[in-house]
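Researcher: Please predict.
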Amino acid sequence: MIGRGAVALGVGLLLAVGSTTAAGGSASDRSEIRHTPHLQLGDAPLIGYSGSETDQVRVMWQTVPEGSATNDSFHVEYRLESAAQWLRARAVVRTDTGVGGRVIHHSDLLGLDFDAGYEYRVQHVRDGVILATYGSAFRTRLPEASNRSFSFAAYGDSANVSSLGSFRLLQQRINQVDPEFSLLLGDNTYNDGSHDQIDARFDASLNPEAAAWNSGHIDYVSFGNHDVRTRSGQATEDSFSVPVPVVGVTAAASPPVSERPEHNYSFDYGSVHFVTFDTNSLDNPDRLDGLIEWVAADLAASRQPWKIVFGHHPVAGTPDKGESPSGGYYSRLVPALFAAGADAFMVGHSHTYGWSYPLTGGRDGTAAFVSHRGTAYREGDGVVQVVSGVGGKSVRSGSFGQFPFMAAGYTSSTEPRAEVGFTLVEVTPTILTFSYVAADDGEVIASFSILGGADHWGVPGRWSLRLSVT
């Protein structure tokens, strides 16, 4: 069996295989693998629509030219972990990025059982000889009705190709914890979102820890300000593959037609509905209003008990950024998310870590929120903003005393100090637990929970009143 998270070349496992060749090969020029095969969701139907009865994944990799031979091809196969026979994947599709001869290849594995273990392999063939085989084991998503607990990681502000030590340490810790997937909270490619810089995530010779992770897990991407600096985020769009919103297929509503479709999407995993939108719209009221309307419609259509929105820019409450309750971003977004039943808004951008009390809205530059004793909040009280921007870039200084709606905050000048790390979210049918995990030693620096269900709502003396404060 192929070990979960194992890929060939530079990561430690080159698979020995026979001469079996699957249909669906992709002829190309003589090629060198630049990005080893990694997993994405692709254009998966949204739960509840036709085609969502089974799961899928998309296997992606990138090549660059190597010489002038014209007999290279790639073949993709997959199987259930317990099966003896490999199955043929869909035909390999090639997309020329137009940058330095980089070509993106992908093949879809369709009709997969939910909550099942699979393995895949990608064979690089030249003149009829298998040069290398890349592969991994993976597990498909939990179905909508599943009550099984699971966990995922979330972090932003991470991969700098010129300084990868901290991010590699972070990814190594995530690999050891082994959650089901990750949410990337923007600024995933420093400094300009270019193809050369995105190698920091997918080139196994630069970052073997990330290549091992994404060979068997999905990173669900959102777009930060650094990611869109080059060609409006084209390199990220090329390297990731998300469900492009189509009403009645992959989405319950359509985002504004002026938006880049890959920047706004939703998906389900077990008991949680996730939706992301392009928060780079925060200073453009017309654009922002259209996206908020789409997010609210998407959340309202979901049947899942937990609803998490993720993106890049916080609405307020960080010492190194300027967003505040007096801004249009806060005043437009927070009431809409609260009304639509969002439980959490997960973001990066600020190179700090912190979370708010449950936010309900605001007026005249004030933040309305529910103040609690302790670190257990009730589902429905408001939207908890979680800032997890400590994914590998330098941690910034500052304090949070001027933000009474912030429940906790950590920077390089607080005690305890913020460290490079990530949020580990543990999901059960009745509790969401958010833990700030340090990359170096795995210490849980802080945590809080959102309690759902009537069994958690009648605890005497735990809850205080809703407050409005400046």
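Model: The domain at 150-469 is CATH 3.60.21.10 (Purple Acid Phosphatase; chain A, domain 2).
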